């Protein structure tokens, strides 16, 4: 399977311009026989939604979305989804003009300069899903920092974990720098969940944040097999041997003893004790 990582510098609030650039990159990936093109989180709208006055949300029925996947490759695109009641930070998997899967970001940061809960509601489920190429799961940025979610995706059979992201470098001297955390986290996730990890970050400056890029692919042994440059736009083409995930899981069956009943009982106890459902 050939995957294209589209490390873009999207423009805040410019959906039409971002769509034009998105389509250009999809066509470029198609010319290189890519099966799937993955774009960063909120790649159609930009991240700092509080800085724009217009409503940037799109329904999944918007025909412009369907057209993105009519150039050959499947597409994962990030957008602010206009749902019937709420809006969601969503990553949509499109194939041949159809929505195959929609992941609504589950864990929305609301600290420091990040204010996602002002503009979106959290999703309510995480599911692996089948495509023509492999069984996959999507986790949007901060979702991947929650240890149970990659594990749940692997238990649901995901062989490829897609991680569209908007990760910015530290904004002040001595501030928190997420890049080293991401490097450690991605390696750990790929190694322990024994799956391919496709991490796609954006670049560019927006509302005081500078996004560092560094998109990469890791194999089921936790090794980085390809990495895009930091700070610059890039279209990185990578070939994945999907069967490697199953081979690794047979060699070292870390996921086999899930003890789901044990987890259910302990989670129910914690929910009853804390009231956090």
From TrEMBL:
<dbReference type="Pfam" id="PF00795">
    <property type="entry name" value="CN_hydrolase"/>
</dbReference>
<keyword id="KW-0378">Hydrolase</keyword>
<feature type="domain" description="CN hydrolase">
    <location>
        <begin position="1"/>
        <end position="242"/>
    </location>
</feature>
<dbReference type="InterPro" id="IPR036526">
    <property type="entry name" value="C-N_Hydrolase_sf"/>
</dbReference>
<dbReference type="InterPro" id="IPR050345">
    <property type="entry name" value="Aliph_Amidase/BUP"/>
</dbReference>
<protein>
    <submittedName>
        <fullName>Putative amidohydrolase</fullName>
    </submittedName>
</protein>
<dbReference type="GO" id="GO:0050126">
    <property type="term" value="F:N-carbamoylputrescine amidase activity"/>
</dbReference>
<dbReference type="InterPro" id="IPR003010">
    <property type="entry name" value="C-N_Hydrolase"/>
</dbReference>
<dbReference type="GO" id="GO:0033388">
    <property type="term" value="P:putrescine biosynthetic process from arginine"/>
</dbReference>
């Amino acid at each position: 399977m050939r995957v294209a990582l589209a490390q873009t510098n999207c423009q805040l609030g410019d959906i039409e311009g971002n769509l034009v650039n998105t389509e250009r990159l999809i066509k470029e990936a198609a010319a290189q026989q890519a099966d799937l093109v993955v774009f960063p989180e909120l790649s159609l709208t930009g991240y700092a939604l509080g800085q724009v006055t217009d409503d940037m949300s799109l329904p999944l029925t918007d025909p412009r979305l369907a057209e993105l996947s009519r150039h050959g490759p499947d597409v994962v695109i990030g957008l602010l989804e206009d749902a019937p009641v709420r809006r969601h930070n969503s990553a949509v998997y499109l194939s041949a003009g159809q929505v195959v899967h929609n992941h609504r970001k589950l864990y929305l940061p609301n600290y420091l300069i990040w204010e996602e809960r002002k503009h979106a509601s959290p999703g309510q489920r995480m599911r692996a899903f089948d495509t023509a190429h492999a069984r996959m799961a999507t986790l949007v940025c901060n979702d991947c920092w929650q240890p149970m979610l990659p594990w749940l995706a692997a238990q649901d059979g995901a062989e490829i974990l897609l991680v569209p992201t908007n990760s910015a470098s530290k904004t002040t001297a001595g501030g928190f720098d997420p890049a080293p955390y991401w490097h450690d986290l991605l390696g750990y996730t790929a190694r322990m969940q024994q799956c391919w990890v496709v991490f796609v970050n954006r670049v560019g400056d927006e509302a005081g944040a500078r996004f560092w890029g560094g998109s990469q692919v890791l194999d089921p042994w936790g090794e980085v097999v390809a990495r895009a440059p930091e700070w610059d736009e890039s279209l990185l083409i990578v070939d994945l041997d999907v069967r490697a995930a199953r081979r690794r899981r047979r060699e070292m069956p870390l996921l086999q003893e899930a003890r789901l009943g044990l987890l259910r009982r302990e989670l129910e106890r914690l929910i009853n004790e804390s009231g956090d459902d």
